[in-house]
Amino acid sequence: MTMQPSNNNPLNGIVEGMPVYDSNGERIGVVAEIHFGGQETDAYSGRSKSADEDIRRAGRDVDTEITSAFNGDVDSEVAEQLALNGYIRVEGSGLTGAAAYIMPDRIGLINDGQVKLASSLRNLREFPHPGKGERNE
């Protein structure tokens, strides 16, 4: 069975444990975590309204709270994008740090229980998140 990620949620059809391949067909790891994102957001900040209020009520800083969820692997801007848009976290020897968090726009194809990314392993390592100066492949 082959399906393209839907416009509504590109992470549909992905489950933990699925093998992940880059755009060149190189296996880079397995899906260790899925976060679907898509919470109600503030039009100005792009952050989840309910999550921000819960964090503030607990007396914690919103930016610190968001980035700590990613073990310091990503900066606050990318952490907000990941929390809002969703991601898969890939475990394997091919990716570490920020590159292990794959945004939905990096997912090319879900086919026969496998995730194929739209980026090469090299591009993911050099430019882990879209829009950060990556090169065309």
Please write out the topology.
Layout: E1 2-3, E2 19-21, E3 27-35, H1 49-57, H2 62-68, H3 76-85, E4 87-91, E5 101-102, E6 107-111, E7 114-117, H4 121-126
Parallel strand pairs: 2-7
Antiparallel strand pairs: 1-6, 2-3, 3-4, 4-5, 6-7
Helix pairs in contact: 2-3
The CATH topology of the largest domain is: SH3 type barrels
How many domains is the backbone divided into?
A: 2
Strand content: 15-25%
Number of strands: 7
Share in helix? 10-25%
Shape: globular
Structural class given helices, strands, pairing? alpha+beta
CATH architectural name of the largest domain = Roll
Question: What Rg is obtained from the alpha carbons, in whole angstroms?
Answer: 15 Å
Determine and state the CATH class of the largest domain. Answer: Mainly Beta
| Main beta sheet | 7 strands, mixed
Strand arrangement within the widest β-sheet reads: 1-6-7-2-3-4-5
The helix-strand sequence is: EEEHHHEEEEH
Report how far the terminal alpha carbons are from each other: 26 Å
Mean pLDDT: 75
Low-confidence stretches: 1-6, 40-48
Enumerate how many helices there are, as a single number.
4
